[in-house]
Amino acid sequence: MPANDLAVVILAAGKGTRLKSGVAKVLHRAGGRTLVEHVLAACAPLKSRKTIAVVGHQADQVTTVVAPLDAESVLQQPQHGTGHAMQVARRALGSAKLAIVLPGDAPLIRTETLRAMLAAHRTANAAATILSAVVSDPAGYGRILRKSETSVQAIVEESQLTDEQRDLNEINSSIYCFTLEKLWPALAQVKPHNKHRELYLTDAIAALTAKNEAVLAHVAADPREALGCNTRADLAEVDRIFRERKRADLMNDGVSIQLPETVLIDQDVTAGEDTVLEPCVQLLGKTKIGQRCTIRTGSVLSDMILGDDVLVEPHCVAVESRLDNNAIIGPFARLRPGTHLKEGARAGNFVEMKKSVIGEGTKVPHLTYLGDAHVGPKTNIGAGTITCNYDGFAKHPTTIGRGVFIGSDTTLVAPVRIGDGAYIAAGSTITENVPPEGLGIARGRQVNKPRWAARKRRELASAEHSAKRARPRTKSKAKKKKSRRR
Ligand code: UD1
Ligand code: MG
After folding, report:
1. What is the mean pLDDT of residues 245-250?
2. Do 186 and 266 lie in a common domain?
């Protein structure tokens, strides 16, 4: 069968009652992505002719997530079980001959495993191939009942197990490959299961074997790939495994990670050779880090782009911003979206920036807020400089040229421009543009009053002395003195 006869069906209509959540199960997150995005990512390299997501619970929200990943949503309303979900998908499958079916809640599945299952299915010309896994704790999963070493008799759901079957430890991952012309008649024979009148896809297996159709179970090399997320504990375990896999991948790519189990890295993050991640770092979203960068302890980078040789000192929080080669931030810097530090620029301790461009080699070493600012190269911004970019109604820009020196504790009331090479005197409140090479000074003049302090002290001391003498003794104090004399 040519590859384009293949379709993928993701069952994603369920509510996920056991998670006790207002969010549909497949939209819960692990490893920095929703569960259904992981499943789609594993299927994408198969290049099937079509990918269908069966949606139901929170259908619109699930569709919003799957549509950009080229999955067509089919609505299952109400949800009458996994077998019913496949029947709902039938029309959308069109002329596909083969379908890989996956639950949207088993996100650890890998492309290689799907390929191996597909190859086994094709070689045996089977009607159905189940991806199974041998696990130490099979509780909660459907069990594989084998006819022989190579073929399957049935899948028995947990609620239907006899006492002898309870110890079977080969489980159904709910990932299958079906030859569709064989599946539909078998599914038509399946009877509703429980008081909810659910059709179980698992029952189609017994229906196929009753017709003497070939049903295989392909055992996953790594049983963790079959893990389904039915509970919060399952979610936590799957998340842990994703994080571990990601760290291992980055270390293989030449990234050093200290105390790896404390470092949290999302799936789409990349980092170059000889980059070092210290303990308790978080790299989130689509963060891209170049070579030889150091991300020191406690820093959280989300959707950041870092060039090479960037240093992020401890405890920085940086979001949707860019740091070019040799830039340095922190410790304790906060970069909000839209910030760009050009080559060799620096944002030091307790510096906050938002939507600001900082020129090559410019230093903003301490205690500063720059918002909607454009700063040229080789400029120095003194401690305590603040851009007043918001007037309660709108945001306004501050433009600072090249080679400017902004003295400490300067307030720049936007919109305002400081020309190239200008100086701003420390403690100024700048409300007007400063020309290139000029000095802006905007503060009260200093007045020194000689010997003022000594005179003041004398005045205060003599006032205190007179007050003491004038104060009458209270009765109780006089009594106390008397009794002490006795
Ligand atoms: C299912 C299998 C079980 C297997 C386990 C592996 C059945 C009856 N049982 O159980 O053998 O060991 O997965 O994780 O299939 N869904 C729909 N529409 C529905 C019902 C479910 O789209 O009407 C979707 C869910 O959103 C979910 C998937 O199908 O993504 C599986 O459903 P779930 O309720 O998680 O089944 P399990 O009880 O885990
Ligand atoms: Mg499940």
Report:
1. 97
2. no
DSSP 153: E
- pTM for the complete prediction? 0.88
Q: Is residue 465 part of a domain?
A: no
Query: How far, in Å, from the CA of 62 to the mean position of ligand 2?
Result: 17
Give domain status of residue 292, yes or no.
yes
pLDDT of res. 477: 54
Q: Which ligand 1 atom minimizes the distance to the CA of 55? A: 22
Q: Which residues contact 297 (CB under 8 A, 6 or more apart)?
A: 278, 279, 280, 281, 314, 315
The encoded tokens of residue 403 equal 């080679």
Q: Note the pLDDT of residue 149.
A: 86
Residues 158 and 78: beta-carbon distance below 8 Å: no
Torsion from C-alpha of 144, 146, 151, 156, nearest 10 degrees: -40
Expressed as residue numbers, the domain containing 199 is 3-226
Pairing between β-strand 33-34 and β-strand 29-30 as defined by DSSP bridges? antiparallel
Phi, psi of 245 (to 5 degrees): -60, -45
The CA distance from 105 to 27, in Å, is 9
Q: Report the number of distinct structural domains present in the chain.
A: 2
- Residues contacting residue 74 through CB under 8 Å, at least 6 positions apart: 52, 53, 54, 55, 88, 89, 91, 92
Q: Is 315 a catalytic residue?
A: no
The reported pLDDT for the residue numbered 194 is: 75
289 falls within a domain? yes
**Cα of 103 to ligand 2 centre, how many Å?**
7
Residues 6+ apart with CB under 8 A from 313: 296, 299, 328, 329, 330, 331, 332, 333, 349
**312 and 186 share a domain?**
no
Give yes or no for a contact between 292 and 311, defined as CB atoms under 8 angstroms apart.
no
CATH number of the structural domain spanning residue 96 = 3.90.550.10
- Domain assignment present for residue 247? The answer is no
Distance (Å, rounded) from C-alpha 327 to C-alpha 439?
29
Ligand 1 atom 1: residue of nearest CA: 174
Q: What is the chain's mean pLDDT, rounded? A: 95
The 10s digit of each residue's pLDDT in 406-416 is 999 999 999 99
Least confident of 314-323, 332-341, 462-471: 462-471
Beta carbon of 256 within 6 Å of any ligand 1 atom: no
The reply to whether 175 and 314 lie within a common domain is no
Cα–Cα dist 184/166, whole Å: 30
Are residues 45 and 119 part of one domain? yes
